[in-house]
Amino acid sequence: MSFELPELDYGYDELEPHLDALTMEIHHSKHHAGYTANLNAAIEGTEMAGKSIEELITEHFDNAAVRNNGGGYWNHSMFWKTMSPSGGGSPDGEISNAIDASFGSFESMKEEFAQAAMTRFGSGWAWLCASNGNLCICSTPNQDNPLMSGDGIPLLGIDVWEHAYYKKFGPARADYIDSWWNVVDWNSVNDNFLASI
Ligand code: MN3
């Protein structure tokens, strides 16, 4: 069994003007496709073939090809699912209550999340996670994620590799983060939260 590049639920241009179509196309059809192909190459013909992506990235963390490409596969698959042309605004439902309980307010959570994304040196991700009944924020380098370390179950993540924003925003990572909130699909984040508890 091999992994397939997941299709997006929207067109490359449908997150405009917040995320540009060219970046979306390259990010999905080149970067994510590359992680997918390299992951398949790393596991083909080994005892790892047939394992779930979660099993691969947690049980074979010490295998650099699986860690990097499996992480890239998992992280981007979640990233696309938690964005939508109809996204943005503020959450409601269970995830909203959980955010208020853990951070005091939605605005406080956004500030802490943006800080984690801004201070991730070099390439990586910032995450909103569920952990032991609370929500928490962290960041990881490269294509690592909190599943690998057991630090939490990711509910939402932002890719802060330069390939995610440089064409439109140049070095202005803060502007990319500001813009990205406009496409976050809180219904999807809420679904991830409900699945985590
Ligand atoms: Mn990426």
In short, what is this structure?
The chain has 197 residues and is mainly alpha-helical. The protein is 50% helix and 12% strand. The protein has helices at residues 21-43, 53-59, 64-81, 94-103, 106-119, 146-149, 166-169, 173-180, 186-196; strands at 124-131, 134-141, 153-159.
Describe, in plain words, how this protein is organized in 3D.
It is built from 9 helices and 3 strands. The mean pLDDT is 97. Helix 1 packs antiparallel against helix 3 and helix 2 packs across helix 3. The protein has 197 residues and is mostly helical. Helices cover 50% and strands 12% of the residues. The chain has a single domain, classed as minor pseudopilin epsh fold, CATH 3.55.40. The chain binds manganese (III) ion. The site of manganese (III) ion has 7 residues, from helix 1.
Helices and strands in order:
Blueprint: H1 21-43, H2 53-59, H3 64-81, H4 94-103, H5 106-119, E1 124-131, E2 134-141, H6 146-149, E3 153-159, H7 166-169, H8 173-180, H9 186-196
Helix pairs in contact: 1-3, 2-3
The chain binds manganese (III) ion.
Please report the number of helical segments: 9
Count all strands and give the number. Answer: 3
CATH superfamily: Iron/manganese superoxide dismutase, C-terminal domain
Q: Structural class of the helix and strand makeup?
A: mainly alpha
What name does CATH use for the topology?
minor pseudopilin epsh fold
Bound molecules: manganese (III) ion
Features:
mainly alpha, 9 helices, three-stranded antiparallel sheet, minor pseudopilin epsh fold
